[in-house]
Amino acid sequence: NENLGDLAPGGTITVTLSRTTTVADCGPINNTASATITNESGATPNTDSADITVLCTDITITKTPDGEQIYPGDTATFTITISNVGANTAKDVTLTDTLPDGSWTVVTNPVDLISSPASGSLNENLGDLAAGESITVTLSRTATVADCGPINNTASATISNESGATPNTDSADITVLCTELTITKTPDDGFVNPGGTAEFVITVTNVGSFAAQDVSISDTLPAGTWTVEVLDQPSAQANVVDGVLTVTMDALPAGETLTVRVYRTVTTADCGPIPNTASVGFSNPAPGVDTQPTD
Predict the structure, then answer these.
(1) DSSP assignment of 32-77, as one string?
(2) Minimal CA–CA distance to 203: which of 233, 182, 219, 218?
(3) Residue 105's Cα: distance from chain center in Å?
(4) Can you point out the beta strands (E) in 66-167?
(5) pLDDT confidence bin for 238, thresholds 50/70/90
(6) pLDDT, average across residues 15-33
């Protein structure tokens, strides 16, 4: 409510009002001004209005695992999608993400928004995002036995003209499936006479909750020619090379066994003990378990 003094015929007074807008201004900023003089001969009041529209919008973020359950050696992949679901351009889209351990390959669409590989924490300004458009960020690396259990990842996105609810955050988990195997080697009889049959039965049991991957039994057989039979897993493959028995199978389901029988006729050359030791390896041992049980 200011007295601006006198104004000569044909003269003009200009008043400029300015300030920085915030998200609290989203939508129209309306302003109306009036002017009066003491010697007005025309119509009154002298009033005019104007609007400035502050363009705000709303974004969403989703984080999706490529597979919710994987094994060590598989690729863990998270895809982050930031979408502008509002009517105006989203300004200064910023992604923050504390990455799980390891070095992650990063692929973005549009391309080259983030350097790859990445580790530690992301705090990336991805630029502006037009209404109705999306940005995707894919993070991937090979899972190891150190990852057994859940790999959790949470990402957040912000913009400088957000009109919707904040924060924009989403989380996802990938579970790396690990397990435990046991092995026993049992002689058919503790004693056998020359001319009889010496027999060992190797039993590998998956005592964990998930399939054991890349199972491999190794057994350096005693001297002689041994017959080998796999008793309960048709997919298992048995081979003897240079006296070493190897039995492999891709996966042994939880709760199941892999049983192998080896036997041959004994001779007087065998008099005394016939020792034999077998071990089993697999690619997804759970933390703290024996990675190569032996018996």
Answers:
(1) EEEE--TT--S-S-EEEEEEEEE--B-EEEEEEES-SEE-TTSEEE
(2) 182
(3) 11
(4) 69-70, 75-84, 90-98, 105-109, 121-129, 134-142, 149-158
(5) very high
(6) 93
Task: Name the token pair of 137.
Answer: 């960020």
What pLDDT, on a 0 to 100 scale, did the predictor assign at position 166?
78
Residues 6+ apart with CB under 8 A from 265: 195, 196, 197, 198
Contact 140, 84 (CB under 8 A): no
User: Which pair of tokens denotes residue 187?
Assistant: 């002689």
Do 82 and 95 touch, CB atoms closer than 8 A?
Answer: yes
The answer, yes or no, to whether residue 176 has pLDDT greater than 90, is yes
CA dist list (Å): 52 to 21, 30, 239: 10, 7, 81
This prediction has a pTM of 0.80
Write the single-letter amino acid at 120. Answer: G
Q: Which residues are within 8 A (CB) of 178 and not within 5 positions of it... i.e. 6 or more apart?
A: 72, 145, 148, 149, 208, 210, 284, 285, 286, 287
- Residue 131 φ/ψ, nearest 5 degrees: -55, 135
Q: What angle do CA 169, 173, 176 make, to 5 degrees?
A: 160
CB of 149 within 8 A of CB of 209?
no
- The b/e string for 256-265 (b: 16+ C-beta within 10 A; e otherwise) is ebbbbbbebe
Residues 265 and 197 sit within 8 Å (Cβ to Cβ): yes
Peptide bond just before 117 cis, omega within 30 deg: yes
pLDDT for 89: 96
**Token output for 158:** 């912000």
Q: Classify residue 20 by burial, with Cβ atoms within 10 Å: 0-12, 13-18, 19+.
A: exposed
- Measured in whole angstroms, the distance separating CA 3 from the mean position of its chain's CA atoms is 66
